[in-house]
Amino acid sequence: MIVSPSLLSADFANLARDVEMLNESDADWLHCDVMDGVFVPNISFGFPVIEAVAKTASIPLDVHLMIVNPQNYVGQVRDCGAAIMNVHQEACVHLHRTVQAIKAAGMKAAVTLNPATPIVMLEDIIGDLDMVLLMSVNPGFGGQKFIPRTLHKIRELREMIDAAGTDTLIEVDGGVNVNNAPLLAEAGADVLVAGSAVFSAPDPKAIIRSLAAL
Ligand code: DX5
Ligand code: ZN
User: Fold this and answer.
1) For atom 4 of ligand 1, which residue has the closest CA?
2) How far apart, in whole angstroms, are the C-alpha atoms of residue 63 and residue 85?
C-alpha cells in the first residue's frame, strides 16, 4: 500500500520536525491539504508553506486542492514542488483541460470526488488520469468519521479502471485508520491518506508501517 500521511494533522509550530519524522518513516508521499474557505468551510495553508515543506521533505508531495478555480494555480503548484496535483471534479467546469494542463506542467494528474459525487462522472476521462482520490469524509476537516459507502465506490472505480485498461491509482482520504484500512485494501485502494490516525498516535511511524504493510 502507498501511504500518504496528511500534513493537516501535523504540529504547524514544528513542521520541519514532523516532516523529518515522515522522511524517516515508511511513508511514500506527503499529502498537503490546501483549503480556501470557499470550496470548503475551512482555511488551512497555502503555497508558501508547501514550498517550505518541500525543502525538508525527501518524499514526493501529493497536493490536494480544496479550492475553487484550481486551474488558475497549476504553475504555482508545480513551482512549489508538487509531484501530484489533485483537483476536485466539483470545482472544475473544464476538467479535461485542467488535467492536460497539470500533465503538461510535469506533474501527475489526480481528480478528487466528494462523497456525494458518483464515479460515473469520470467515465469519459478515466484514461487520462494518473489517480482518482475518493473522499471518504466531506472535505474541510481532519478527524472526521469514515463514510462506509466509500467501500462500494472503490469497487465500482476499480471495475471502471480495469474496463478502461489504464493503470490509474485509487487513493482514499478521510477517516482512514488501522481498523478500516484492511477493508479499503481489499476493496481495491492503492493509496491511503491518513492524518489524525498517524499524528494522534503515540508512535506515528508504527501506524505508517502497519498501513504500508497492507
Ligand atoms: C480532509 C482532508 C484530509 C484530512 C484527513 O478534508 O482532505 O486529507 O487531512 O484527515 P483524517 O485522516 O484525520 O480524516
Ligand atoms: Zn486531503
Assistant:
1) 142
2) 5
